[in-house]
Design a protein that fits this description.
Blueprint (H helix, E strand, L loop, with lengths): L1 H11 L10 H33 L3 H12 L3 H15 L7 H25 L3 H9 L4 H31 L12 H10 L2 H29 L2 H9 L18
Length: 249
């Protein structure tokens, strides 16, 4: 309890809310790199996941590569990218590029796997009926598969976002800012109130991210699907739970 009290006292100090090392600045740095990493991962993973989910082609290869990527530690990715990024950009190669690259690679697997699973959970009879009505493949994807599978897809984004917010603290080891600076500096200076405050800020941001995207996930679920979940009779095109089928390790 003493550690938490010290952390709250550190957060309550007005001196820690101003300047380049102030909480607003570090929070903005953390949110910026987390949001941009997840956005780039979505632009990469969602099209691939939707394509393999709709066509069924290369699914085994893509999903297994994604699962292998989940097993690679983000710290190791940063360490591997560091010398390469320094040779290309001495200005950003030490702090920004390794952290950003590792966070993008961390976010891709859950988004890709859930985008694939979102379409594979749709009832095949519905898809065949849509094709029988004369819909083209893109129309089937846009009007049938995506509306039904969207909650599962957003669940993958939720998992990726929370992982990135929690793991982006490692960037401070390589000189990046963000909330991880409070952890690294707190350990280096033996200022455990700063360390505890940093942990509380990261945990709070991760919790807010989880709750915010969970609310968005519910809002994107159609009324018919929500009604099926409420009555305990889930729609045939949906899994019995909208949660991501692959959970983070």
């Amino acid at each position: 309890m003493d550690a938490f009290a010290a952390g709250f006292a550190w957060l309550a100090d007005p001196a820690h809310w101003t300047g380049p090392d102030g909480i607003p600045t570090r929070l903005l740095e953390h949110v910026s790199i987390s949001a941009s990493s997840v956005l780039i991962a979505c632009l990469i993973a969602i099209p691939i996941g939707l394509w393999i989910g709709h066509t069924g082609r290369w699914a085994f290869v893509a999903i297994n590569l994604a699962n292998v990527g989940r097993a690679v530690p983000s710290y190791a990715v940063m360490a591997i990218i560091l010398p390469i990024s320094l040779s290309f950009s001495p200005e950003y190669g030490l702090a920004l590029i390794p952290t950003f690259s590792a966070m993008v690679l961390l976010a891709i697997p859950p988004i890709l796997v859930n985008a694939y699973a979102a379409l594979r959970e749709v009832d095949r009879d519905l898809i065949e009926s849509a094709r029988g009505m004369g819909m083209r493949e893109l129309q089937v994807l846009r009007r049938v598969e995506l509306p039904i599978g969207l909650p599962i897809l957003v669940g993958g984004i939720r998992t990726a976002a929370v992982q990135v917010v929690a793991t982006a603290t490692l960037g401070a080891v390589f000189g990046y800012g963000g909330l991880g600076r409070y952890l690294i500096d707190g350990i280096a200076r033996r200022q455990f109130d700063r360390l505890t405050a940093g942990v509380m800020l990261v945990a709070g941001l991760a919790l807010m991210t989880e709750l915010g995207i969970a609310l968005l996930q519910r809002r994107l679920t159609s009324a018919g699907l929500r009604a099926g979940q409420t009555t305990g009779r889930p729609y045939r095109g949906m899994a019995e739970t909208p949660a991501a089928p692959v959970q983070p390790v």
